[in-house]
Amino acid sequence: MLQGRRQLFHKVGHGPNAAGFPAPVRANFRHCALISWIILPPLRREAIDEMNVAECIRKSEAALTAAGVHFGHGTDNARDEAAWLVLRVAGEPCDGSFEDWDRAVSGDEYLEIERILQRRIVERKPLAYLLGEAYFCGLRFRVSGAVLVPRSPIAELIACGFEPWVRPGRLERVLDLCTGSGCMAVAMAYRFPGIRVDAADISPDALEVAAQNLADHGLESRIELVCSDLFSDLAGREYDLIVSNPPYVSAAEIERLPAEYRAEPATALAAGGDGLDLVLRILHEAPRYLAPGGVLICEVGASAERLQSVLPAVPFTWLEFEHGGDGVFTIDRNDLLRAGPALEQLMAAR
Question: To 10 degrees, the CA torsion angle through 172, 173, 177, 182?
Fold first, then answer.
């Protein structure tokens, strides 16, 4: 299914369905049988002109399956990835509304599908990069190799208004820390029309992508992009909510990543030997930027057990997700202040 159950950890797993396409796209291809093509076969022009969308999806699915590519950047299986590719090239909607499966695929469309599919198989790049798009909270975003492909389970929290952890009526200023493509900042601005959002990232290249997404969604007046190493350039600002999906992959896990994840920016994944370098800094510094009663929500994926083990007395609340995902905690400002001495001692010893 599209963005279904998570695998290994979220940076290399699958986000909730809300972060990808709606379920109807998945349901329409339950009947598709595998065909043993390695890549799409060369066809005569007249044969191409006779192919329809459903047939092209079946052949693309079979090629992806035979090649053994890894999924986890918007889809979690060959069938859905093939549907995304074919519908996108054909200029058809990917929101579950498409039903014209007998619609003919033109020769030019077929050749473009073949070109992208061959790159997907040979280069092992995520399809999102090859198409230049990804979906999060049902919204389309531009992506490039400068940013992670959106897939955080935090999408589910945004859709639910962060309740009961946050009272939406008291939200005025929100920070998306390590914003990348800006997908969470944009999704939060849609969900809470009255808030203002700061979206911070250390990468100027990532912020260029985020700026394009803000413009696409017409949110430049409500979201401010800040080039900042975590909180370094946010002095004097105060937030009711800080949401972060920082780098949290350990050195050992980095070594085991499939090729598709190595196509993503390493600085958005790697966080030292144990994966905790960034999250410990966030925990230590966040109280200075949270308003009274403010809340931090942070994703740490498979580093969750390590984080809890090095800070056993800190009262993290680990969230559960209906659509899959874990390794996301919430903690309020008061508890962070009380955890300050333990954090300082731990960081001094690292």
Answer: 70
Beta-strand ranges (E) seen in 202-304 are 223-227, 239-244, 290-299
Question: Is 134 in contact with 72 (CB distance < 8 Å)?
Answer: no
Which residues make Cβ contacts (< 8 Å) with residue 315, sequence separation at least 6? 331, 335
| Whole-prediction pTM | 0.86
Q: How many C-alpha atoms does 169 have within 13 Å on its Cβ side? A: 0
Give CA separation, 128 vs 68, 111, 149, 237, in Å: 17, 19, 7, 34
**Segments in the chain below pLDDT 70:** 1-49
Residue 126: name the closest of 197, 69, 195 by CA. 69
Amino acid in the structure at residue 8: L
pLDDT tens profile 262-312: 999 999 999 999 999 999 999 999 999 999 999 999 999 999 999 999 999
